[in-house]
Amino acid sequence: MELIRIPSVSAISNRPVIEYAAGVLRxxxxxxxxxxxxDDAGVEKVNLIAAPPGQDVDARxxxxxxxxxxxxxxxxxxxxxxxxxxxxxxxVHGCGACDVKGILACLLAAAETCAGRYVDGLRIVLTxxxxxxxxxxxRLLREGEIRARRMxxxxxxxxxxxxxxxxxxxxxxxxxxxxxxxxxPEMGASAILRAARMIVALExxxxxxxxxxxxxxxxxxxxxxxxxxxxxxxKNIVPGRCEFLVEWRPVPGxxxxxxxxxxxxxxxxxxxxxxxxxHDVLRQQEGFETAANASLVKRIETATGLGAxxxxxxxxxxxxxxxxxxxxxxxxxxxxxxxxDRECVPVVELEAAHRVMCxxxxxG
Length: 364
Hints:
Order of helices and strands: HHEEEEEHEHEEEEHEEEHEEHEHEEH
CATH class of the largest domain: Alpha Beta
Structural class: alpha+beta
Distance between the termini: 31 Å
Number of domains: 2
Radius of gyration: 23 Å
Low-confidence stretches: none
């Protein structure tokens, strides 16, 4: 409950959450080191790497890492109880209750429960800015701060161990035309109409992507979405500029969507001298997949009695998959309640997640 009371939307510093968690761990004898950076707005952000008593927090090669982000999405001004959590009908309600302060609380509680009998090579890694592009995780990866044989990334999965997940990619397409009086359209070149042609082509691409299916996911294919579009100056001016954002969530192994978009741009440009389009890749995060018989998957399945699943949303597992032999996503709560004033997490799932964390964290 205390974690929810600490506001930690991505636009502000996450240091208060880090200091709370570090205080709990240091009281148990853990050591911690901070990896600090400033975001594009100059706001301080903190990643924390913590090791149990007797283990070298500076060692980069470890056995087991629990990863949990510390930021939340913004919440509506009229959500009075966003940071005033309460329990009702067996659920803890509040901003971040399931995404992901619930699993963070379970980790801290498990560290206390297992005090004095931790597995060798154990780390808890807390990250910043997951909700705005896994920025903190990418920084840790680029700087070589951590590598692990096994990793558990905290996200709401209703206690199912997610051994595979879709990636997340985002690009901005910017179209440049020529402004002219709308009564004389032949004097200009409409950026909006050319953007519209591209959107229709992307809709057709999305239909083709449905043909490449991975039945372990729901929906079982790479999805594509045009989320925002802006352009034009006035109703009576041929628009000289238009841009839109296109995102896609690739199933593991799906790597050719960007190439397909670039091909479409080239084809339109070859047939229209006024078709000027620039594309900027803002995020490119592939999916991940861990084998069904991996030890980490089987251990969590045994501990919960629930079968493995996949997740349709992006996570830090995709970032860290390149430096872990086995990586899974796990946690209490249902992502369908997250990012809204309905956010909640079942108390019974918090208790169960705590037991699973203990079973993985404890030696012997």
